[in-house]
Amino acid sequence: MNIDAWLWWLIGAAGLGIALVITAMPELGMLAVGAVAAAAVDALGGDAVLQVVVFAVVSVALIAVVRPIAARHRSQRPRLATGIDALKGRQAVVLERVDGSGGRIKLAGEVWSARSLDTGRTYEVGEEVDVVDIEGATAIVM
């Protein structure tokens, strides 16, 4: 039984796809796409050398282009901040005088205890302040 080269390329691509799922190594997926491209070259009548060249070029090009993009996205902070991180940087309104020892603010519709980042600075009722950090249940403002 003689199996065409394009079928071997597709079998290789399937094997790489399975390995991708098992190992979670995205490079294997890029190699699988290269194998599919080589199968297409064989189906269009390309010789073995051209198939290997297309496999190598497509695989290397995908790894060279996609990996840096993926690494950049992986290193970025998530755009949707939740919990305490979502409150940092927001504005609040002073409800009770805030100084270095304490006070109260209205932040995101809730009343929070707060203290001034600069211990010598005082914020009066009605002033808008920026939340720079959250320590426990206390907002640090400036």
Automatic annotation (TrEMBL):
- UniProt domain NfeD-like C-terminal: residue ranges: 85-141
Q: Which domain of life is it from?
A: Bacteria
The membrane-topology field of this record reads:
Multi-pass membrane protein
Per the record, the major location class is membrane
TM helices/strands, residue ranges? 48-70
Q: Which UniProt keywords apply?
A: Membrane, Transmembrane, Transmembrane helix
Q: What span is annotated as the signal peptide, if there is one?
A: none
Please tell me whether the keyword Transmembrane helix is annotated for this protein.
Answer: yes
Transferase among keywords: no
Task: Enumerate the subcellular locations listed in this protein's record, separating them with semicolons.
Answer: Membrane
Specify the protein name: NfeD family protein
Upper classification of the organism: Bacteria, Bacillati, Actinomycetota, Actinomycetes, Kitasatosporales
